[in-house]
Amino acid sequence: MKQFTRSIYKAAGGMMLAALLAAGCTSSFLEVPPQGQQPGQQFWKSADDAAKAVNAMYANLHEWKQVGFASIAIESLGSDDVEKGSDLNDAAFLSKYHDFTVGPTEGQNLDFWKGQYQEINFCNQVLDNVPNINMDANLKNRYLAEAKFIRAFAYFRLVRAYGDVPLRLQVPKGAEEYNLARTPKAQVWTTIEKDLADAVAGLPPSYGANDVGRATKGAALALSAKVAMYQQKWNDVLNYTNQVATLGYDLFPNYEKMFRIANENCIESVFEIQCQLIPGNPDASNSQYSEVQAVRGVPGGGWGFNVPSADLANNAYETGDPRRGATIIFRGETTAEGDVIPPSVPNPMYNKKSYVPFSLFVSGYKSGADQNVRVIRFAEVLLMNAEANNELGNTADALKSLNRVRLRARGGNPNILPDVTVTDKAQLRNAIWRERRVELAMEFDRFFDVIRQGRAAAIFGPRGFQAGRNEIWPVPQNEIDISAGKLVQNPGY
Protein backbone atom coordinates (compact mmCIF):
# COMPACT_ATOMS: atom_id res chain seq x y z
CA MET A 1 0.00 0.00 0.00
CA LYS A 2 2.87 2.38 0.73
CA GLN A 3 5.58 1.47 -1.74
CA PHE A 4 6.30 5.11 -2.58
CA THR A 5 6.48 5.99 1.10
CA ARG A 6 8.97 3.21 1.69
CA SER A 7 11.10 4.48 -1.19
CA ILE A 8 11.09 7.94 0.37
CA TYR A 9 12.74 6.65 3.51
CA LYS A 10 15.19 4.51 1.58
CA ALA A 11 16.39 7.34 -0.64
CA ALA A 12 16.07 10.40 1.56
CA GLY A 13 19.05 9.87 3.86
CA GLY A 14 21.77 10.53 1.30
CA MET A 15 20.12 13.75 0.27
CA MET A 16 20.04 15.50 3.62
CA LEU A 17 23.52 17.01 3.51
CA ALA A 18 23.16 18.33 -0.01
CA ALA A 19 19.88 19.95 0.90
CA LEU A 20 21.20 21.59 4.03
CA LEU A 21 24.50 22.84 2.60
CA ALA A 22 22.58 25.62 0.91
CA ALA A 23 20.47 27.21 3.63
CA GLY A 24 16.88 28.31 3.41
CA CYS A 25 15.65 31.85 3.98
CA THR A 26 18.21 32.85 6.57
CA SER A 27 21.37 31.52 8.15
CA SER A 28 19.27 30.06 10.98
CA PHE A 29 18.68 27.10 8.73
CA LEU A 30 22.33 26.14 8.63
CA GLU A 31 22.70 22.91 10.56
CA VAL A 32 25.63 20.63 11.25
CA PRO A 33 24.96 17.59 9.01
CA PRO A 34 25.33 14.05 10.29
CA GLN A 35 28.63 12.41 9.45
CA GLY A 36 28.83 9.80 6.73
CA GLN A 37 26.32 11.34 4.35
CA GLN A 38 27.01 12.06 0.73
CA PRO A 39 28.84 15.40 0.27
CA GLY A 40 26.89 17.97 -1.72
CA GLN A 41 29.64 18.40 -4.32
CA GLN A 42 29.38 14.70 -5.21
CA PHE A 43 25.65 14.90 -5.61
CA TRP A 44 23.46 16.02 -8.53
CA LYS A 45 25.19 13.74 -11.03
CA SER A 46 22.61 11.12 -11.97
CA ALA A 47 18.93 10.27 -12.26
CA ASP A 48 19.30 8.35 -9.01
CA ASP A 49 20.51 11.54 -7.31
CA ALA A 50 17.45 13.37 -8.66
CA ALA A 51 15.17 10.65 -7.30
CA LYS A 52 16.79 10.86 -3.87
CA ALA A 53 16.39 14.63 -3.85
CA VAL A 54 12.71 14.50 -4.75
CA ASN A 55 12.06 11.74 -2.23
CA ALA A 56 13.78 13.78 0.49
CA MET A 57 11.48 16.67 -0.39
CA TYR A 58 8.45 14.47 0.27
CA ALA A 59 9.98 12.88 3.38
CA ASN A 60 10.45 16.29 4.97
CA LEU A 61 6.70 16.92 4.79
CA HIS A 62 6.03 14.70 7.80
CA GLU A 63 8.84 15.78 10.11
CA TRP A 64 8.12 17.43 13.46
CA LYS A 65 8.01 21.06 12.30
CA GLN A 66 5.52 20.14 9.60
CA VAL A 67 2.94 18.00 11.42
CA GLY A 68 3.70 18.33 15.15
CA PHE A 69 3.15 21.13 17.65
CA ALA A 70 3.99 23.90 15.16
CA SER A 71 1.21 22.96 12.77
CA ILE A 72 -1.27 22.50 15.61
CA ALA A 73 -0.35 25.91 17.02
CA ILE A 74 -0.42 27.90 13.78
CA GLU A 75 -3.06 26.09 11.75
CA SER A 76 -5.53 24.73 14.31
CA LEU A 77 -5.52 26.14 17.85
CA GLY A 78 -6.92 29.54 16.89
CA SER A 79 -10.09 27.80 15.78
CA ASP A 80 -13.35 27.44 17.71
CA ASP A 81 -13.36 23.73 16.81
CA VAL A 82 -10.53 22.84 19.19
CA GLU A 83 -8.99 23.29 22.61
CA LYS A 84 -5.40 22.70 23.72
CA GLY A 85 -6.17 19.37 25.37
CA SER A 86 -3.77 17.09 27.26
CA ASP A 87 -3.15 17.85 30.94
CA LEU A 88 -3.67 21.42 32.05
CA ASN A 89 0.00 22.25 32.60
CA ASP A 90 1.46 20.10 29.82
CA ALA A 91 2.79 22.33 27.01
CA ALA A 92 0.89 25.26 28.50
CA PHE A 93 2.52 27.52 25.90
CA LEU A 94 0.10 26.13 23.31
CA SER A 95 -2.78 27.88 25.11
CA LYS A 96 -1.31 31.18 23.98
CA TYR A 97 -2.38 30.37 20.42
CA HIS A 98 -5.92 29.58 21.51
CA ASP A 99 -6.37 32.80 23.49
CA PHE A 100 -4.33 34.97 21.07
CA THR A 101 -1.71 36.04 23.61
CA VAL A 102 1.23 34.47 21.80
CA GLY A 103 4.20 36.72 21.12
CA PRO A 104 6.98 36.65 18.51
CA THR A 105 9.42 34.68 20.70
CA GLU A 106 7.28 31.54 21.17
CA GLY A 107 9.05 28.46 19.87
CA GLN A 108 6.29 26.73 17.91
CA ASN A 109 5.82 29.84 15.80
CA LEU A 110 9.52 29.78 14.95
CA ASP A 111 9.33 26.06 14.20
CA PHE A 112 6.48 26.55 11.74
CA TRP A 113 8.31 29.35 9.91
CA LYS A 114 11.55 27.39 9.76
CA GLY A 115 9.79 24.20 8.77
CA GLN A 116 8.21 25.78 5.71
CA TYR A 117 11.43 27.42 4.59
CA GLN A 118 13.33 24.19 5.07
CA GLU A 119 10.74 22.53 2.81
CA ILE A 120 11.14 25.34 0.28
CA ASN A 121 14.90 24.79 0.41
CA PHE A 122 14.44 21.12 -0.49
CA CYS A 123 12.30 22.19 -3.44
CA ASN A 124 14.75 24.86 -4.58
CA GLN A 125 17.58 22.33 -4.45
CA VAL A 126 15.63 20.19 -6.91
CA LEU A 127 14.65 23.09 -9.13
CA ASP A 128 18.19 24.51 -9.27
CA ASN A 129 20.08 21.27 -9.85
CA VAL A 130 17.91 18.64 -11.54
CA PRO A 131 17.73 20.57 -14.85
CA ASN A 132 21.50 20.01 -15.26
CA ILE A 133 21.32 16.23 -14.83
CA ASN A 134 21.47 14.08 -17.95
CA MET A 135 18.39 11.86 -17.56
CA ASP A 136 15.06 10.98 -19.14
CA ALA A 137 13.43 14.28 -20.12
CA ASN A 138 9.89 13.27 -19.20
CA LEU A 139 10.92 12.09 -15.74
CA LYS A 140 13.00 15.23 -15.24
CA ASN A 141 10.02 17.44 -16.11
CA ARG A 142 7.81 15.50 -13.73
CA TYR A 143 10.30 15.88 -10.88
CA LEU A 144 10.42 19.64 -11.47
CA ALA A 145 6.63 19.81 -11.48
CA GLU A 146 6.50 17.89 -8.20
CA ALA A 147 8.93 20.39 -6.66
CA LYS A 148 6.82 23.30 -7.93
CA PHE A 149 3.73 21.80 -6.27
CA ILE A 150 5.42 21.20 -2.92
CA ARG A 151 6.97 24.68 -2.95
CA ALA A 152 3.57 26.19 -3.68
CA PHE A 153 2.08 24.21 -0.80
CA ALA A 154 4.73 25.50 1.60
CA TYR A 155 4.24 29.11 0.50
CA PHE A 156 0.46 28.69 0.77
CA ARG A 157 0.90 27.68 4.40
CA LEU A 158 3.22 30.64 5.00
CA VAL A 159 1.20 33.39 3.34
CA ARG A 160 -2.06 32.57 5.06
CA ALA A 161 -0.23 32.36 8.40
CA TYR A 162 1.93 35.52 8.15
CA GLY A 163 0.81 37.61 5.18
CA ASP A 164 3.93 39.12 3.58
CA VAL A 165 6.81 36.64 3.69
CA PRO A 166 10.30 36.46 2.12
CA LEU A 167 10.09 34.94 -1.34
CA ARG A 168 12.98 32.54 -1.87
CA LEU A 169 12.93 30.98 -5.35
CA GLN A 170 16.49 29.69 -5.59
CA VAL A 171 19.25 28.42 -3.37
CA PRO A 172 21.35 31.33 -2.01
CA LYS A 173 24.61 31.73 -3.91
CA GLY A 174 26.34 34.00 -1.40
CA ALA A 175 26.06 35.40 2.10
CA GLU A 176 24.34 38.51 0.80
CA GLU A 177 21.44 36.40 -0.48
CA TYR A 178 20.54 34.74 2.81
CA ASN A 179 18.53 37.61 4.27
CA LEU A 180 15.57 38.79 2.22
CA ALA A 181 12.92 41.36 3.02
CA ARG A 182 9.29 40.33 3.18
CA THR A 183 7.57 40.19 -0.20
CA PRO A 184 4.04 41.66 -0.39
CA LYS A 185 1.50 38.88 -0.08
CA ALA A 186 -0.08 39.71 -3.45
CA GLN A 187 3.23 38.86 -5.13
CA VAL A 188 3.54 35.69 -3.06
CA TRP A 189 0.07 34.61 -4.17
CA THR A 190 1.05 35.28 -7.79
CA THR A 191 4.18 33.16 -7.40
CA ILE A 192 2.16 30.32 -5.88
CA GLU A 193 -0.23 30.51 -8.82
CA LYS A 194 2.68 30.35 -11.28
CA ASP A 195 4.24 27.34 -9.55
CA LEU A 196 0.90 25.54 -9.55
CA ALA A 197 0.29 26.32 -13.22
CA ASP A 198 3.66 24.75 -14.01
CA ALA A 199 2.77 21.80 -11.80
CA VAL A 200 -0.57 21.27 -13.57
CA ALA A 201 1.23 21.26 -16.91
CA GLY A 202 3.90 18.77 -15.79
CA LEU A 203 2.15 16.33 -13.46
CA PRO A 204 0.29 13.16 -14.50
CA PRO A 205 -3.31 12.57 -13.40
CA SER A 206 -2.25 9.37 -11.62
CA TYR A 207 0.67 7.01 -10.96
CA GLY A 208 1.36 3.32 -10.86
CA ALA A 209 1.18 1.44 -7.58
CA ASN A 210 4.81 2.12 -6.67
CA ASP A 211 4.34 5.89 -6.82
CA VAL A 212 0.93 6.41 -5.22
CA GLY A 213 1.12 9.46 -2.97
CA ARG A 214 3.12 11.71 -5.26
CA ALA A 215 1.61 15.03 -6.31
CA THR A 216 -0.77 14.70 -9.25
CA LYS A 217 -2.39 17.05 -11.74
CA GLY A 218 -5.54 16.83 -9.63
CA ALA A 219 -3.64 17.89 -6.51
CA ALA A 220 -2.18 20.91 -8.31
CA LEU A 221 -5.59 21.91 -9.66
CA ALA A 222 -7.25 21.48 -6.27
CA LEU A 223 -4.60 23.57 -4.51
CA SER A 224 -4.96 26.15 -7.29
CA ALA A 225 -8.67 26.30 -6.47
CA LYS A 226 -7.93 26.77 -2.78
CA VAL A 227 -5.42 29.52 -3.51
CA ALA A 228 -8.00 31.25 -5.69
CA MET A 229 -10.68 30.84 -3.00
CA TYR A 230 -8.53 32.68 -0.46
CA GLN A 231 -8.32 35.56 -2.93
CA GLN A 232 -12.03 35.40 -3.85
CA LYS A 233 -11.24 34.68 -7.49
CA TRP A 234 -14.45 32.75 -7.93
CA ASN A 235 -14.24 32.18 -11.69
CA ASP A 236 -10.84 30.55 -11.16
CA VAL A 237 -12.16 28.43 -8.29
CA LEU A 238 -14.98 27.21 -10.51
CA ASN A 239 -12.64 26.48 -13.42
CA TYR A 240 -10.14 24.52 -11.33
CA THR A 241 -12.72 22.51 -9.39
CA ASN A 242 -14.59 21.61 -12.57
CA GLN A 243 -11.33 20.27 -14.00
CA VAL A 244 -10.64 18.20 -10.88
CA ALA A 245 -14.11 16.69 -11.19
CA THR A 246 -13.17 15.17 -14.58
CA LEU A 247 -10.15 13.26 -13.22
CA GLY A 248 -11.87 10.27 -11.64
CA TYR A 249 -12.17 11.35 -8.00
CA ASP A 250 -15.28 10.48 -6.01
CA LEU A 251 -16.51 10.45 -2.43
CA PHE A 252 -15.48 7.41 -0.40
CA PRO A 253 -18.69 5.65 0.69
CA ASN A 254 -17.95 5.52 4.43
CA TYR A 255 -16.92 8.85 5.98
CA GLU A 256 -15.43 7.42 9.17
CA LYS A 257 -13.54 4.54 7.56
CA MET A 258 -12.01 6.92 5.03
CA PHE A 259 -9.64 8.15 7.77
CA ARG A 260 -8.31 4.73 8.70
CA ILE A 261 -4.92 3.53 7.48
CA ALA A 262 -6.46 0.84 5.27
CA ASN A 263 -8.17 3.52 3.16
CA GLU A 264 -5.34 5.97 2.69
CA ASN A 265 -4.93 7.29 -0.86
CA CYS A 266 -8.48 6.20 -1.67
CA ILE A 267 -10.69 7.53 -4.45
CA GLU A 268 -11.46 10.65 -2.41
CA SER A 269 -7.85 11.49 -1.67
CA VAL A 270 -6.46 14.36 -3.73
CA PHE A 271 -3.26 14.82 -1.75
CA GLU A 272 -1.96 13.21 1.44
CA ILE A 273 1.33 13.52 3.29
CA GLN A 274 2.66 9.97 3.23
CA CYS A 275 3.72 8.46 6.56
CA GLN A 276 5.07 5.00 7.28
CA LEU A 277 6.14 2.74 10.12
CA ILE A 278 9.28 1.10 8.77
CA PRO A 279 10.10 -2.14 10.60
CA GLY A 280 13.58 -2.02 12.05
CA ASN A 281 13.92 1.74 11.56
CA PRO A 282 12.24 3.77 14.33
CA ASP A 283 14.17 6.92 13.40
CA ALA A 284 12.70 6.95 9.91
CA SER A 285 9.21 6.23 11.27
CA ASN A 286 9.10 9.75 12.60
CA SER A 287 5.65 11.18 11.90
CA GLN A 288 4.05 12.36 15.14
CA TYR A 289 0.87 13.72 13.57
CA SER A 290 -1.21 11.00 15.21
CA GLU A 291 0.82 10.68 18.39
CA VAL A 292 0.42 14.28 19.53
CA GLN A 293 -3.38 14.11 19.11
CA ALA A 294 -4.16 10.52 20.13
CA VAL A 295 -6.07 9.59 23.29
CA ARG A 296 -3.97 10.31 26.35
CA GLY A 297 -3.47 7.84 29.16
CA VAL A 298 -4.09 4.55 27.37
CA PRO A 299 -1.67 1.90 26.02
CA GLY A 300 -1.03 2.65 22.37
CA GLY A 301 -2.41 6.15 22.73
CA GLY A 302 -0.65 9.48 22.59
CA TRP A 303 -0.34 12.94 24.08
CA GLY A 304 -3.94 14.15 23.69
CA PHE A 305 -3.42 17.65 22.28
CA ASN A 306 -5.64 19.56 19.84
CA VAL A 307 -8.91 18.09 21.09
CA PRO A 308 -12.41 18.88 19.77
CA SER A 309 -14.18 21.72 21.55
CA ALA A 310 -17.54 21.61 23.24
CA ASP A 311 -18.77 24.12 20.66
CA LEU A 312 -17.91 21.75 17.82
CA ALA A 313 -19.49 18.77 19.55
CA ASN A 314 -22.64 20.54 20.75
CA ASN A 315 -23.40 23.27 18.23
CA ALA A 316 -21.89 22.50 14.83
CA TYR A 317 -23.65 19.30 13.72
CA GLU A 318 -27.23 18.75 12.70
CA THR A 319 -29.17 16.13 14.62
CA GLY A 320 -28.07 12.64 13.63
CA ASP A 321 -25.10 13.72 11.51
CA PRO A 322 -22.80 10.66 11.59
CA ARG A 323 -19.80 12.88 10.96
CA ARG A 324 -19.93 13.95 14.60
CA GLY A 325 -19.13 10.45 15.82
CA ALA A 326 -16.67 9.96 12.98
CA THR A 327 -14.75 13.09 13.96
CA ILE A 328 -14.83 12.93 17.75
CA ILE A 329 -13.73 10.15 20.13
CA PHE A 330 -15.71 10.59 23.34
CA ARG A 331 -14.49 9.64 26.77
CA GLY A 332 -16.15 6.37 27.78
CA GLU A 333 -16.92 5.13 24.26
CA THR A 334 -15.74 1.98 22.53
CA THR A 335 -14.53 2.60 18.99
CA ALA A 336 -15.61 0.54 16.01
CA GLU A 337 -12.20 -1.12 16.16
CA GLY A 338 -12.85 -2.26 19.74
CA ASP A 339 -10.71 0.25 21.67
CA VAL A 340 -12.24 1.15 25.02
CA ILE A 341 -11.76 4.79 26.02
CA PRO A 342 -11.85 4.82 29.83
CA PRO A 343 -13.93 7.45 31.65
CA SER A 344 -10.72 8.40 33.46
CA VAL A 345 -8.80 9.79 30.45
CA PRO A 346 -7.88 13.49 30.93
CA ASN A 347 -10.02 15.01 28.18
CA PRO A 348 -13.69 14.49 27.32
CA MET A 349 -12.97 14.31 23.57
CA TYR A 350 -10.17 13.51 21.10
CA ASN A 351 -9.60 13.81 17.34
CA LYS A 352 -10.88 10.63 15.70
CA LYS A 353 -9.57 11.62 12.27
CA SER A 354 -6.01 11.13 13.49
CA TYR A 355 -6.91 7.96 15.40
CA VAL A 356 -4.97 4.75 14.84
CA PRO A 357 -6.32 1.60 16.56
CA PHE A 358 -4.30 0.81 19.68
CA SER A 359 -3.61 -2.72 18.44
CA LEU A 360 -1.37 -1.28 15.74
CA PHE A 361 1.02 0.29 18.24
CA VAL A 362 4.54 -1.14 17.99
CA SER A 363 6.78 -0.70 21.03
CA GLY A 364 9.75 1.54 20.34
CA TYR A 365 7.97 3.50 17.59
CA LYS A 366 5.88 6.66 17.52
CA SER A 367 2.27 5.71 18.09
CA GLY A 368 0.27 6.13 14.91
CA ALA A 369 3.40 6.58 12.78
CA ASP A 370 1.60 4.89 9.88
CA GLN A 371 -1.19 7.47 9.71
CA ASN A 372 -1.12 9.70 6.61
CA VAL A 373 -2.11 13.36 6.85
CA ARG A 374 -5.07 14.18 4.62
CA VAL A 375 -4.35 17.54 2.98
CA ILE A 376 -7.03 17.87 0.29
CA ARG A 377 -10.03 15.60 -0.21
CA PHE A 378 -12.52 15.58 -3.08
CA ALA A 379 -15.26 16.59 -0.62
CA GLU A 380 -13.46 19.90 -0.17
CA VAL A 381 -13.21 20.30 -3.94
CA LEU A 382 -17.00 19.92 -4.14
CA LEU A 383 -17.52 22.48 -1.37
CA MET A 384 -15.18 24.94 -3.08
CA ASN A 385 -17.16 24.36 -6.26
CA ALA A 386 -20.40 25.01 -4.39
CA GLU A 387 -19.06 28.22 -2.87
CA ALA A 388 -17.79 29.51 -6.22
CA ASN A 389 -21.05 28.69 -7.99
CA ASN A 390 -23.05 30.46 -5.31
CA GLU A 391 -20.88 33.57 -5.45
CA LEU A 392 -21.28 33.62 -9.23
CA GLY A 393 -25.05 33.23 -9.08
CA ASN A 394 -25.17 29.60 -10.28
CA THR A 395 -27.53 28.48 -7.53
CA ALA A 396 -28.55 25.11 -8.98
CA ASP A 397 -24.96 24.02 -9.52
CA ALA A 398 -24.01 25.21 -6.04
CA LEU A 399 -26.80 23.12 -4.50
CA LYS A 400 -25.80 20.10 -6.57
CA SER A 401 -22.22 20.08 -5.27
CA LEU A 402 -23.25 20.86 -1.69
CA ASN A 403 -25.90 18.16 -1.57
CA ARG A 404 -23.56 15.59 -3.05
CA VAL A 405 -21.42 15.98 0.09
CA ARG A 406 -24.46 15.72 2.34
CA LEU A 407 -25.72 12.62 0.51
CA ARG A 408 -22.53 10.75 1.33
CA ALA A 409 -22.62 11.98 4.92
CA ARG A 410 -26.11 10.63 5.62
CA GLY A 411 -25.03 7.18 4.49
CA GLY A 412 -28.34 6.11 3.02
CA ASN A 413 -30.45 7.29 5.96
CA PRO A 414 -33.23 9.46 4.45
CA ASN A 415 -34.25 10.80 7.87
CA ILE A 416 -31.11 12.91 8.44
CA LEU A 417 -29.27 15.66 6.58
CA PRO A 418 -31.93 16.49 4.00
CA ASP A 419 -30.87 18.29 0.86
CA VAL A 420 -30.35 22.03 1.21
CA THR A 421 -32.95 23.84 -0.90
CA VAL A 422 -32.45 27.52 -0.05
CA THR A 423 -31.86 29.76 -3.05
CA ASP A 424 -31.11 33.06 -1.31
CA LYS A 425 -27.43 33.77 -1.92
CA ALA A 426 -26.59 34.79 1.65
CA GLN A 427 -28.47 31.86 3.18
CA LEU A 428 -26.83 29.41 0.81
CA ARG A 429 -23.41 30.91 1.56
CA ASN A 430 -23.97 30.27 5.26
CA ALA A 431 -25.13 26.72 4.53
CA ILE A 432 -21.95 26.05 2.55
CA TRP A 433 -19.78 27.53 5.29
CA ARG A 434 -21.52 25.36 7.88
CA GLU A 435 -20.99 22.31 5.71
CA ARG A 436 -17.29 23.12 5.42
CA ARG A 437 -17.08 23.26 9.19
CA VAL A 438 -18.60 19.84 9.85
CA GLU A 439 -17.16 18.07 6.79
CA LEU A 440 -13.60 19.33 7.36
CA ALA A 441 -13.59 19.55 11.16
CA MET A 442 -10.23 18.78 12.81
CA GLU A 443 -8.47 18.97 9.43
CA PHE A 444 -6.61 22.25 10.13
CA ASP A 445 -8.68 24.59 7.94
CA ARG A 446 -11.35 26.10 10.20
CA PHE A 447 -9.23 28.92 11.64
CA PHE A 448 -8.17 30.31 8.28
CA ASP A 449 -11.62 29.65 6.80
CA VAL A 450 -13.30 31.93 9.34
CA ILE A 451 -10.69 34.63 8.73
CA ARG A 452 -11.11 34.58 4.94
CA GLN A 453 -14.90 34.67 5.43
CA GLY A 454 -14.58 37.90 7.43
CA ARG A 455 -16.16 36.45 10.57
CA ALA A 456 -13.13 36.10 12.84
CA ALA A 457 -13.89 38.99 15.19
CA ALA A 458 -17.41 37.73 15.79
CA ILE A 459 -16.50 34.05 16.24
CA PHE A 460 -13.08 34.25 17.86
CA GLY A 461 -13.48 37.63 19.61
CA PRO A 462 -14.66 36.18 22.93
CA ARG A 463 -11.29 34.41 23.21
CA GLY A 464 -9.28 37.57 22.61
CA PHE A 465 -9.07 37.84 18.81
CA GLN A 466 -8.39 41.43 17.75
CA ALA A 467 -9.32 42.55 14.25
CA GLY A 468 -6.39 44.05 12.39
CA ARG A 469 -3.90 41.99 14.42
CA ASN A 470 -4.78 38.33 14.82
CA GLU A 471 -5.63 37.56 11.20
CA ILE A 472 -1.92 36.69 10.95
CA TRP A 473 0.66 35.44 13.43
CA PRO A 474 3.82 37.29 14.50
CA VAL A 475 6.99 36.99 12.48
CA PRO A 476 9.38 34.98 14.69
CA GLN A 477 11.63 37.38 16.62
CA ASN A 478 14.63 35.15 16.06
CA GLU A 479 14.29 35.62 12.30
CA ILE A 480 13.99 39.38 12.70
CA ASP A 481 17.07 39.47 14.92
CA ILE A 482 19.30 37.63 12.46
CA SER A 483 17.95 39.35 9.33
CA ALA A 484 20.21 42.41 9.57
CA GLY A 485 17.17 44.67 9.61
CA LYS A 486 15.50 43.14 6.55
CA LEU A 487 12.47 41.64 8.32
CA VAL A 488 9.85 43.75 10.07
CA GLN A 489 7.15 42.63 12.50
CA ASN A 490 3.44 42.32 11.79
CA PRO A 491 1.23 45.09 13.26
CA GLY A 492 0.29 44.70 16.90
CA TYR A 493 3.10 42.34 17.87
How would you concisely characterize the structure shown here?
The chain has helices at 3-12, 16-21, 47-59, 64-67, 69-75, 95-98, 107-129, 137-162, 185-202, 217-230, 234-244, 310-316, 322-327, 378-391, 395-410, 425-439, 446-452, 456-460, 477-481, and strands at 82-85, 269-273, 305-308, 328-330, 349-351, 373-377. With 493 residues, it is mainly α. The protein has a two-stranded antiparallel ribbon. It has a two-stranded antiparallel ribbon with strand order 2-6. Strands 4-5 form a two-stranded antiparallel sheet.
What keyword list fits this structure?
two-stranded antiparallel ribbon; 493 residues; two-stranded antiparallel sheet; Serine Threonine Protein Phosphatase 5, Tetratricopeptide repeat; mainly alpha; 43% helix
Rg, alpha carbons: 22 Å
Could you give a short account of the major beta sheet?
2 strands, antiparallel
Q: Assign the CATH architecture of the domain at 1-78 and 101-215.
A: Alpha Horseshoe
Percent of residues in helical segments? 40-55%
**Count of helix runs:** 19
- In which order are the strands of the major sheet placed? 1-3
Which fold name is given in CATH as the topology of the domain at 1-78 and 101-215?
A: Serine Threonine Protein Phosphatase 5, Tetratricopeptide repeat
Element string (H = helix, E = strand): HHHHHEHHHHHHEEHHEEEHHHHHH
**Beta-sheet strand percentage?**
under 5%
Runs in which pLDDT lies below 50 for 5 or more consecutive residues are: 13-36
